[in-house]
Structure of ROK family transcriptional regulator:
Amino acid sequence: MITSTTGPQPADFADVRATNLAVVLRFVREHAPCSRADIAASTGLNKATVSSLVADLIDRRLVRETGLTENRVGRPATMLVLDGSPYAAIGVEINVDYVSAVATDLAGQRLLTWRRSFSGGDSVNQGVAGVGAIIRRVVGRMAKEERQVLGLAVAVPGLVDVQGTVRLAPNLGWRDADIGGDLAKALRDPGFPIQVDNDANLAALAEQRFGAHAGASDLVYLTGEVGVGAGIILDGRLRRGGLGYSGEIGHVQLDPDGPECHCGRRGCLEAMAGIAAVLRKIPAPAEIQVEIEESVRLARARDAGTLATLESVGRSLGRGVSVLANLLNPEVVILGGYYVPLAPWLLPAVQEELSDRVVASAAGGCQVVASTLGHDAAALGGAARVLDSIDSGRLPGGLSRIP
């Protein structure tokens, strides 16, 4: 497991201890098993300070000692690893037809993975009530395991501003909704922070921390759900844009005479390469998975009509990806959601379009691959965002660098 590259560095200011606690915890996360001497040598903190910080982290049960090692020069050293056994991070994804929930420990190991059908109801209040009921069950499960929830991050398919307000989630019918505040009320002020973000953003965080291309400094994640959005990581950091609305690649127009998009325009990437284009319609939410499985079956049976449709969708998708490759030059573009089972038939056409349309040779080094994280990537990314906040200094026990 590799974490993001933008964690805290030792600093000399008022909250220096909180910052340096996070530095030590991050080092143990990335290099365990390691010794106190290893931490001091790599971070520049003196040995006495490291010993004090490690003692604090052990008291918080964030780090534990794991015996001695003699495979080193000098005296045997007591080695340190992450503990975190009393803690859990929770991520939840709200989508048109399902809610996914993932809980992880401090090391990112999954404690729970759930997926439940979800209709959204007729209003935001009904939707929040349904999601809140699922979250209460997850929190209850963690309580039975005697784990303190460090935080909750919720993924929503739509425009989410930097304050976490869902400005527009058209496929859910939500507008200007304070989902975080509403969930806090539904959970009766649970005592842990609740964050809300775009689903593609959180899925990109999951890929950077847990995916097959973990540690990539420049990657783009494309959702393959009813909508198509992009989560963008550049120079190791998630890029949300000025107001939080980056990544709406699904509404880049590819063909002004193309099919109508639900946004009211014609020929958007989402209309030409989204699930509606694959299935030639948007079926009832509960039927999408069944329809995708049937498309895979027909493609494997070499049904001519299905293969032609997937090639056409792959070419449209490749045109959209080439825009990203020319503009951002990512190391990798990762296809998620329903694109994953269809990837064997989509990727050849995507690659051909990249070769034809990207100005730099060899597509600027950009790879296009299918996600290995499955449909709960955005929920896993929610847990990753909570863990990122711990890496950045929001430690349990009251020492926090982030307000």
Observations:
- The radius of gyration is 22 Å.
- The CA atoms of residues 228 and 239 lie 17 Å apart.
- The longest strand covers residues 148-156.
- The chain is about 40% helix and 20% strand.
